Amino acid sequence: MAITRRDLLSASAAIATAPTFASRAWGAPLPREADIVVIGAGAAGIAAARRVQAANRKVILLEAANQLGGRCLTDASTFEAPFDRGARWMHNPETNPMVRLARNAGLDVSAASLGQKIRVGLRNARAGETEEFLAALVRANHAIDEASRGKADLSCASALPRDLGVWAGTTEFVLGPYATGKDLKDVSVIDKVRGQDRNAPIGCRQGLGVLIARLGEQIPAMLSTPASQISWSNRDVTVQTQAGKIAARAAIVTVSSNVLAGGNIKFSPEIPRRQLEAAAKLTLGSYDRIALQLPGNPLGLSRDDTIIEQSSSTRTALLSANIGGSSLCVIDVAGSFGRDLSDQGEKAMVAFATEWLSRLFGNDIVKLVKKSSATRWNASPFVLGAMSAAPPGAQPSRKMLGEPFGNVFLAGEATHETLWGTVDGAWESGERAAEAALRKIGAISEPAAAPSRAPNQRRRGF
Questions:
Q1: Mean pLDDT for the chain overall
Q2: Is residue 136 classed as helix, strand or coil in its secondary structure?
Q3: Burial profile 1-22: b = 16 or more Cβ within 10 angstroms, e = fewer
Q4: What does the pLDDT look like over 260-296, one tens digit per residue?
Q5: pTM reported for the whole predicted model
Q6: Does the CA dihedral 161-167-173-178 come out positive or negative?
Q7: What pLDDT, on the 0 to 100 scale, is given for residue 447?
Q8: CB contact burial 98-124 (16+ within 10 A = b; e otherwise)
Q9: Beta 33-39 vs 59-62: how paired, if at all?
Q10: How many CB atoms lie within 10 A of CB 436?
Q11: Whose CA is closest to 288, among 212, 371, 373, 366?
Q12: Alpha carbon separation from 373 to 129, 300, 342, 369 (Å, rounded)
């Protein structure tokens, strides 16, 4: 019995966003002033810069890396199909502005495939076994939901039923590492439950990274230009870079919570303690992808099949096979196990992926791999992880992190109270920050725009 993408991905939190073709900025003289300077060219930064442009105000987008997109990058050259090294999915297509923008840009977006399977050793799970697994997920989600109504914020792990049997490890993997990048012992029940329903995942055939980069093409962007210091007041800001200073009336900072908490950007005066402590609590989880080109379909799977296994622990993975009808297969690893594996380097990651597939499908996969590649987001100096997940007691930190100080405004998936961990949340937070910054400098006078999508009250369930 196959489980649907809705079943398997409703607990998923996508990482975040894109590559670039913005070489136009390389070697160009650094602009010296703007109405608003945006720091970080991921989904939040691009959304913010587009909103400033729409208000007919001058914006400059600074990016430390050599491409747009932050935590998302589509590799379009290594394999025969686009390999999204970071975020792969958008959600809620009826209300998601990126879906409309993608179609207007001539890109192909479509709902995720429904082909899902569970492996029990060398075979597919039987119908009764799949039903047992889904029942375990329902019970686990219900227990987490009930725990979130208590007086104290607990870890999701402490709320789990103790009698999940042979499905305990798989349940913990799907709800923890796969959905949040962290083990359930490190995830708040309140943060987990407040996450909106992320059903109806939708992807981009050219790659989600390509999509976000396309949306940033018309923004004046300076690549390979990290901000080293931000001097701020209630009137203006000055951003110091290796190429010189930029004076602006306001700044929107969209770097990851780990980069912000790590002091990679200096602030003068120092960033308020409230926001700094909030960033330190909203640390990024670990989520990486191992890509293998396997010609001839040795696994015998269909196009865009997704595979998980019955596992006794969270030391497991998720397979996306034959992506787009190609021979590209991607193995996702996450949580503490994924972090430890990533720390060992790409060679160890590929070795794990081939051994894991061999154990599930009975082939000597290592001899069949034509090409391989692996992400290591924890080691990326301008990101330092995947997506944020709040530990017990830290859910209020999301709102705190999004509070402006002086003429500095913060955005990014970590600041979104319900769509954290998603490209959707990053984009929406960027638009919100831009609205607030434009009001602060007197560029618009209307009240804050209402959220672009109403909260979905359905709980995430399998």
A1: 90
A2: helix
A3: ebbbbbbbbbbbbbbbbbbbeb
A4: 999 999 999 999 999 999 999 999 999 999 999 999 9
A5: 0.90
A6: negative
A7: 62
A8: bbebbeebebebeebbebbbbbeeeee
A9: parallel
A10: 20
A11: 373
A12: 33, 22, 12, 11
